[in-house]
Amino acid sequence: MDWILLAELSANGVFVGLMYALVSLGIVLIYKTSGIANLAQGAVAMTGGYVAWALGARAGLPIWLAVPAALAGMFVFGLLMERLALRRMIGQPIIMTIMLTLGVEIMLRGLLPGIFGASVKRLDIGIPQDPLFLGDLLINRATLIGGSISLALIVLSLLFFNSRFGVVMRAVADDQTASWSVGIRVERAVGVAWGLSAVAATAAGVLWGSNQGVDWSLSLLLIKALAIAILGGLDSIPGVLVAGVIVGVAESLATGVLDPLVGGGSRDVVAAVIILVTLLLKPHGLFGRHHIERV
Fold this sequence. Notes:
Layout: H1 3-34, H2 41-58, H3 63-86, H4 94-116, E1 132-134, E2 137-139, H5 141-160, H6 164-174, H7 176-181, H8 186-212, H9 221-232, H10 237-262, H11 267-281
Antiparallel strand pairs: 1-2
Helix pairs in contact: 1-5, 1-6, 1-8, 1-9, 1-10, 2-3, 2-4, 2-8, 2-9, 3-8, 5-8, 6-8, 9-10, 9-11, 10-11
């Protein structure tokens, strides 16, 4: 067995997994505050990539201005999606709300390529694409930088939840009724969570778009994000980091080890297997909290 190859696959898998984890962060943020599994996160990441590209290529903004503008615009998009669509579902069965997010995913997946065209859009944010050699290991420089940025943003989100407003959002996550009773504006906290979720998705969409271009396939990040959220625990941000690394390394090893044996395609199966095994053996994930209802 070539241990250098395994180390190389694992190292690259770590950074890819951190980029997946940034998409998953948005799913966890929303679930922590509202208890809703957001199935539109992949399409929101795709939309953020398209918006950043359009502001740069169509509107002529420099990339250092186009990306922050896309982040700000998508924060407003998240707020509006919660205010105009999700808030109307209050009092409805939770499955209907989840199906609404799935409908948004499907709509955006068809709408954005229809508006901007189905061809791959090049998004250059200044990340070099040439490989990096660390001793005998060949590291993808783009994923190294993208994974490092993702790690920094996830750590910032952890620090945010220790801030004053973050404590308010954690209170809303623990008990919305009790939060209402002490004067916390629960609707605002949930809306901000949707806005921050859209920002996380947009950052991930921009990073992935700079690696592979912007097109409808960015929405497929939803499957990776769901696998990470379920494995790490739907209400655990530290779980996002750990599960992201696990999923990224597992996919990378599957590509390098299993593909030569089975003829390819094993990478696409890893996320589905992780979701299935986790739900069967540990439904709350590695770090998720057990919610006990007394009747």
